[in-house]
Design brief:
It contains 7 helices and 8 strands. It is an alpha/beta fold. It has a single domain, classed as Alpha-Beta Barrel (TIM Barrel), CATH 3.20.20. This is Ribulose-phosphate 3-epimerase.
Length: 217
């Protein structure tokens, strides 16, 4: 089943609890937690404290996306009862296999994200160990960017790799997802679709979530 993961990066933090309640009520299945450090990407977002403020206020699982350098130093702080998966960037990990195993040792699923220019070949020797691969369809660091068309072919190739080598792998996409392209992206093989400004900038968040869900189910 395809799942929609609204990204907190685009939420109104003065009404964070209220907006998370709205996406949950509308049927969103996951909360995407974008963590930026101002080093790996040219922006700073928030850390584990903000994410943990939602504990007890939502039953939705956390999909933690660490856009940070030296992620191994911070993995433990993002493990909570709600944390389903922690995704790190291949480009930020000197020892990617070790980092993936570190995540799994914490009792959560392990994902690897790839920037638009990063080839799928970097996954050749870890693909069978992964629970998720996140294709960045924009250059990470800012919300509200346009989908990079070349990433659609990348998704299709990853789907072939998944079918051949790791059928249980979840393919995720993050960046530029909107009403016009979400169905095309889902049809290409993406099962977890991250949407930020498309959700939280909508006049009616609940209606927008329902609209997006209808397109991917």
């Amino acid at each position: 089943m395809n799942r929609l993961a609204p990204s907190l990066l685009s939420a109104d933090f003065s009404r964070l609890g209220q907006q998370v309640a709205a996406i949950e009520k509308a049927g969103a299945q996951v909360i995407h937690v974008d963590v930026m450090d101002g080093h790996f990407v040219p922006n700073i977002s928030f850390g584990a404290v903000v994410m943990k403020s939602l504990l007890g206020k939502t039953k939705l699982p956390f999909d933690v996306h660490l856009m940070i350098e030296n992620p191994d130093q911070y993995l433990e702080s993002f493990v909570t009862d709600n944390t389903e998966i922690i995704t790190v960037h291949a480009e930020a990990c000197r020892h990617l296999h070790r980092t993936v195993q570190h995540i799994k040792s914490l009792g959560v699923k392990a994902g690897v994200a790839l920037n638009p220019a990063t080839p799928l070949s970097v996954l050749d020797y870890v693909l069978e160990d992964l629970d998720l691969v996140l294709i960045m369809s924009v250059n990470p660091g800012f919300g509200g960017q346009k989908f990079i068309p070349s990433q659609l072919d990348k998704i299709k190739t990853l789907k072939e790799m998944k079918d051949q080598r790791n059928p249980k792998l979840v393919i995720a996409v993050d960046g530029g997802i909107n009403l016009d392209n979400i169905k095309t992206v889902a049809d290409a093989g993406v099962e977890l679709l991250v949407a930020g400004s498309m959700v939280f900038d909508a006049p009616d968040i609940e209606s927008r979530v329902k609209e997006l869900l209808e397109l991917i189910q």
